[in-house]
Specification:
homohexamer, 314 residues, alpha/beta, Arginase, Chain A, two-stranded antiparallel sheet, 10 helices, 33% helix, Ureohydrolase_Mn_BS (chains A, B, C, D, E, F)
Chain lengths: 314, 314, 314, 314, 314, 314
Amino acid sequence: MIDPQEVPRFAGVPTFMRSPHVYDLETASPDIAFLGVPYDDATSFRPGARFGPRAIRLASTLLKPYNPVTETDLSPVTIVDHDDVPVVPGYTEETFARIEARVSSVLETDVFPAIAGGDHSTTLAVLRAVAEKYGPVSLVQIDAHSDLWTEYFGEPYSHGTTVHHAIEEGLIDPSSSIRIGERGGLYGPEDVDRHDDAGIEYYPIDELEDRGIEEIGDRLRERVDGPTFATLDIDAVDPAYAPGTGTPSPGGLTSREFLRLIRSLRGTTLVGFDLVEVAPPYDDAAGSTATLAASATFEALCAAVDSSGPAGRQ
Amino acid sequence: MIDPQEVPRFAGVPTFMRSPHVYDLETASPDIAFLGVPYDDATSFRPGARFGPRAIRLASTLLKPYNPVTETDLSPVTIVDHDDVPVVPGYTEETFARIEARVSSVLETDVFPAIAGGDHSTTLAVLRAVAEKYGPVSLVQIDAHSDLWTEYFGEPYSHGTTVHHAIEEGLIDPSSSIRIGERGGLYGPEDVDRHDDAGIEYYPIDELEDRGIEEIGDRLRERVDGPTFATLDIDAVDPAYAPGTGTPSPGGLTSREFLRLIRSLRGTTLVGFDLVEVAPPYDDAAGSTATLAASATFEALCAAVDSSGPAGRQ
Amino acid sequence: MIDPQEVPRFAGVPTFMRSPHVYDLETASPDIAFLGVPYDDATSFRPGARFGPRAIRLASTLLKPYNPVTETDLSPVTIVDHDDVPVVPGYTEETFARIEARVSSVLETDVFPAIAGGDHSTTLAVLRAVAEKYGPVSLVQIDAHSDLWTEYFGEPYSHGTTVHHAIEEGLIDPSSSIRIGERGGLYGPEDVDRHDDAGIEYYPIDELEDRGIEEIGDRLRERVDGPTFATLDIDAVDPAYAPGTGTPSPGGLTSREFLRLIRSLRGTTLVGFDLVEVAPPYDDAAGSTATLAASATFEALCAAVDSSGPAGRQ
Amino acid sequence: MIDPQEVPRFAGVPTFMRSPHVYDLETASPDIAFLGVPYDDATSFRPGARFGPRAIRLASTLLKPYNPVTETDLSPVTIVDHDDVPVVPGYTEETFARIEARVSSVLETDVFPAIAGGDHSTTLAVLRAVAEKYGPVSLVQIDAHSDLWTEYFGEPYSHGTTVHHAIEEGLIDPSSSIRIGERGGLYGPEDVDRHDDAGIEYYPIDELEDRGIEEIGDRLRERVDGPTFATLDIDAVDPAYAPGTGTPSPGGLTSREFLRLIRSLRGTTLVGFDLVEVAPPYDDAAGSTATLAASATFEALCAAVDSSGPAGRQ
Amino acid sequence: MIDPQEVPRFAGVPTFMRSPHVYDLETASPDIAFLGVPYDDATSFRPGARFGPRAIRLASTLLKPYNPVTETDLSPVTIVDHDDVPVVPGYTEETFARIEARVSSVLETDVFPAIAGGDHSTTLAVLRAVAEKYGPVSLVQIDAHSDLWTEYFGEPYSHGTTVHHAIEEGLIDPSSSIRIGERGGLYGPEDVDRHDDAGIEYYPIDELEDRGIEEIGDRLRERVDGPTFATLDIDAVDPAYAPGTGTPSPGGLTSREFLRLIRSLRGTTLVGFDLVEVAPPYDDAAGSTATLAASATFEALCAAVDSSGPAGRQ
Amino acid sequence: MIDPQEVPRFAGVPTFMRSPHVYDLETASPDIAFLGVPYDDATSFRPGARFGPRAIRLASTLLKPYNPVTETDLSPVTIVDHDDVPVVPGYTEETFARIEARVSSVLETDVFPAIAGGDHSTTLAVLRAVAEKYGPVSLVQIDAHSDLWTEYFGEPYSHGTTVHHAIEEGLIDPSSSIRIGERGGLYGPEDVDRHDDAGIEYYPIDELEDRGIEEIGDRLRERVDGPTFATLDIDAVDPAYAPGTGTPSPGGLTSREFLRLIRSLRGTTLVGFDLVEVAPPYDDAAGSTATLAASATFEALCAAVDSSGPAGRQ
């Protein structure tokens, strides 16, 4: 990482945290690889998340390596920018194949994948690769939506059906999974049944507000078991803090709640994470959504280092 | 309502919640009519609320019919988009006459009016129609300002004088009315006296913060009595959540507080509501203000269905 | 069309030109149907054109019915807003099937289709329907790009391959087709050969600038023959005039040149047109791209009325 | 004027051209008074021009005093910022009375009024004051619209009826007046008759494009006779150059054409001018519309100094 | 202050709170002088704070003089707008000399300085002037960053080194100073030592959240002693509320917390304050950052009046 | 260069034209090095050009390698992204030293420097390096301003004094230099003398408009002699086409004129160029200024390849 007291943050090619740009992980053998998945076609409202990885890279130039809250130091950790998956616009299933292949190649080298979406459909392809290595994993989903619908417009894959298919395909273990941040309307009372039947423990915003973020964070750590993957949908956060997203939902998490929740991942066996649905065309002039996403990525990286997963230093 | 799992939300003519566009209420005989009042000329700072109804329509395409928090289902409720009042730019009093006539025609058909402003001056004309049918009503005002001034620039009607005139004209009963969310400066200590003398119970932000939203919501339900009209000024919400408004006032409600307060209307005798001062030219690129306004309208519709008013199903 | 001297332009549900919102063309039997195709997934750079139809509807509320330059009066012409094709995000080929079906159903009623995209890939599906009725048509393509590439990312359909496939599938007759407005870089000199081999007469910007818009307009009318379809890609226009598009290319047409070129379609046998690649997330705050697109649509409608095609009154 | 080589342009209170802020003209006795008319309620589409005067003030901090094209030097000319007329939002006719009174008070002191609107309705009130002093004047109208309609929404005053009323009230002499820049649709062929009957010579964009800006400028100088007032509607310019306006019309003047046309006012008997319809909420992030309006104001001031009117130095 | 019920807020030259524009303080002898410091060159990320003073002036036209929470009335207090310091772009040290000279001249007249930055580097120059008059002062720093680094890019002065130099130069007394609002990453654990060694008591966001804003406010009042200067960095606030700033840091104060903290300054011996790092090019369309900054300035002015400092009326 | 038909343009780390990111030129030995100079502190109005290099990199992902107008193919030319100069915010002269050192190191390797500013002050440092190698060069300046002033705010270096100092220091030969695009006001008639005395041939916009772009381009080629450096200030272009710049000046070049002028550099002995004053915070949502700047850079690279300079293939 370039020293921001020597070279200003606004200077130079914006790789993630101004880390080396590396295609060949085997030779570089880093601890962590940042990987972009710029696909946004399977969205039900606003596209734009294809520019999410680049926006997070730009915002990440503001990050510093030491976390005073968790006392985690990323300085001795080697991070590289592993570029993006070459997606195929307009072809969801072909794109999924390319995502799965690329994530698998990262996992084969035992490098921790820190993934930036893309819309939430892409997480299914990521989980296929993860489950291939680890078997069904515990899923931590911070999200305004359950993504448990079965199909959209007569087709199976969409950013609203990811978790349904992940369960169906045996990629995650619902009984050790948890979802936090849901809110807004549903299509009918049958959706509530669907949520209950899926077997994932979930905490909508109203319950989170009543219990407090600390209790929910504790519950998260109790719930997960074994290899754990965290999928962070930026729309879990209120649009005031994260306007740049595809399906905004008012009444969400504050930035402080979001960052605190991510810190709750410390001590788990974190094997990877993705942060999805950052849609820069709808962000504000300051890029606040991308800036928050970069900070959230930083907190998740610290949690990975403080976990017993492949990036763990415990 | 068009099925968003068949036809994407971004497709088609944006009526409110993609409901039928209906001019003739008598024939359609719906439960609820969405009606726009695109007037913004009686504003003391920023205009633009004339585009509020269209922005709320666009954002409402994101809404789903079932509310899992209140377990209210709008699917069996018939909602129509009753278009807008044909206002007269630059002529406040002529515009008021047209608003009053149109709202009266809705009330005559016993359809519940869900109104989208326009600036807050227009509420006076709405209340004239409402009081004509119901007599003086209880007013629930969620607002950053009292709107109790007597005149502006030597003329009586303005978005800052609405409630004063509503009391003067006997349209509302102050002794069963309540105002929540006030903050910011006043012209002098005499304004405090004016607020006290008006007879409306009020809870400025500082008091709301100390007591908590639950207690204030309980107080709201205790205070109102008989036919109740809710006037929701989006500027009650902090500009972080609702930048697109005419006279922004920092230090306001969060989106969660705002939505919770509106849910407090359940169980009252709600006879109508308006949501005013959404000024799209000042909104962010994501339309966050309009999105929140659409969600607030949804919560108010749920409360109307859960009330003993004309849309009530209790 | 609602009288804008009675009801302000900013009021009411924004259908195209505030015309009736009609699903059933057979009963309504209008002269012209405005139809949206909100698909933007087959784009190589910026998405967002799915919101093009709605943006053009909003901007079209500014249009008046009489064209003093061409002395064309749309008042006696019946126009309806035929809503949008229900596309399938992330599934290009399934979407194409739905577009083709819907356009065919319009053509079957002998109504003139005025189509708003959507990205330029969708024109292929439109042309399939058109050619099914008329056989190979003359194509007038006003565009910054040739769209003659054969594939992108290993898949055949993309907004850069439309015209190649239209020729391959026999939907258009290159020998009576013309392309105007091309500029910017190519992948190599072989692209020039590809352009020449395709058989479409073409006028890049530099040639247009040297010859003048009048001469090119005359050439357009000489070139086309029989049923003619016009495909207007807004990126033909310079980004200063039309920033809201997916693949902007500096050095393009001015608004006056663009509108004049469209007027050149008068006197042809115009059987339909589409205006594509309006991407509102990248438009300016004033919606200048959509406003220009609405004016261009108006000019094309006037040309349709002044043509010997199905909307022709000559 | 503050020296921009001593105090940066971005520093200090933004009066017009950083000139003194003067309420009392009689004592100050300047050559030219800049006066704002922040009224925008009589608009048929987008409001916002009430912030026009402030935006022009801000942009004017970029101006320098010497015009190398016309060799006009404003350094020896005393200019003051005479603040704004205290308008009454929502009350057009009361506002007109205040505008007329304030402009009359300027004219009484023989100071040249350089006026910044506001919407185009306000020009009627300005012309009442001007005609009171000078009798019917020659009008130079650079505008996308004729503003010759008789009423809107059943009321007489609107930004679309100004010139009609100016003729009716005998404030201008059509036979020595000229209009340049018109384009876009009309309500019907009867509007063409209305334009012809009004007696003002006019040059729509298409004619201007065919004849060239020089010829039209020459014609302007030939046409006007005696005291001349110029009303510059920023919407004469294409939205690419001036997006921040209330009723944008594609296909307009370029900035070079606009500035050249204004220079054509040199040598006339210019007694005042206004520049209207700058609506900052719709301007771009750079304030391009306001920047162009400031440059246009500068050119008009140079023309005033090079005229035989009250600011003339010839 | 101009009466906003007579002259609309959007009218006229935007001085701070529409107060008189005064260069000569000695003659005017006001209680409070608003002074801009439009320098933003010593910033490590985004510039733009040079336009902060103008943006705060514009937003301040919304302020009213009476504070109902603290019962403070600014009506009898004389406030003037003392324009801006003529800074030198690109020359930090020369600019510091000009700032120090101008602030000293204000302090010599015993007028209370209410300063609007500029980036946070400028506070060093302000403190030099303040300490010259009062000796080492108590510093209240509300800020996302400590600004305790020793140099940037090999040069001493930067917006990240201000407090370090203020201590080194003996301008502030760390033992009676306090910092609130810090968060985000550091360069390493040595930065924590640096913070501890500096001797300023500090409350990062996580601690503030756990203790509550009231307790921290109480602690502030206990900590400071004697002449107190408050430096309010708008980046203490979360980017959701204040996106328009140079180095945004997610997870910050809400607007209500920020305003409450400023109210805690009541009862101290406040001798001046500055509000820095408002960068309008990154603000939202509504100017929310500037609006909050204006409200914060109002609260700080009320605290100054309720203090035993030079503006105090106790 | 990555194949955009294999990997979408929106994917991956955005180096210039997606070329290799290379710090060590000696080993790589490319034909052309893209180099950023992110300094914007010596600006008299709006900062932001420090983000110019990154914005041009992002926009350059749209470029293709073959120029059909000039028949220039960049495919066989090796281009690298040489990152940015590590500037020192707030310290102009220290920054100049770093720029000069870095450009000298590029020139030493005989690589052609393609430089992206930064404000126009930085060109002085670049020219120092260029003249050190080549002696006084011919300067082609396309610019809205002469940059011939001697000092600003009492200091010598500023974006308005660059050419004055370049002449004074003997870095350029005025008698073989040319300036195109000037317009707008000056401080007084003495500025015209200054321009004449400087000895650079110049063509203000009005003269360019009268003569036509072809003639001026021809004159450019006649005027220059020997090693030639082109400095392209994006503010030469009209703000409609390039709003994102520090000191916008209405009435400028169109994009077509700008690109054509740059093509006129073919056949000269081009030894380097810079493109300055792209200020992304003021650009539009589409990044039109950066997109035009990327196209202009492409045209200048083609001219370099078609020149007898170090990148020349003739």
